[in-house]
Amino acid sequence: MPVLDTAALLHWPVERLLGGIVAHSQLEELRRLSPQRAMLIESIELEWMSMGTGDAESAAANTGDLPRLSPVDLEILALALGTGQKLYTDDYSLQNVCRSLNHPFESVSNKKSKQQWSWELRCIGCRASKKADSQEEQECDICGSPMKVKRSRK
Ligand SMILES: [Zn+2]
Hints:
The chain is of the alpha/beta class.
């Protein structure tokens, strides 16, 4: 049974959701987004789980996606990694982390991102670039201009 992110819980027909693995924290998120949908989701058969997010966090730190992932995202990722099940998500950062680990994933809406990418800092002055290990913008070592975070294709 796959792990389902909140987009799936919101948009998929109930029959498709049955038996899916979901994180407890998603219910809170769902209640905020759509109280009616949350009530429906609570009434159907799903596998509610919680798991430590340590491995998920370090995997996301490796690809540079950690600052883009919410606590709920990390929990969903932890469930996918912990259970070894396919993750359904439209979140490009979650997909990026899965791809880096060769973990199976699928998009909720069939728009799968095709390429692996990494985040890099690029200088707006001399265009020098280096790997971004956080989302903090810094000054260029070479010319002192600001460096902006950019997504770079591999
Ligand atoms: Zn520069």
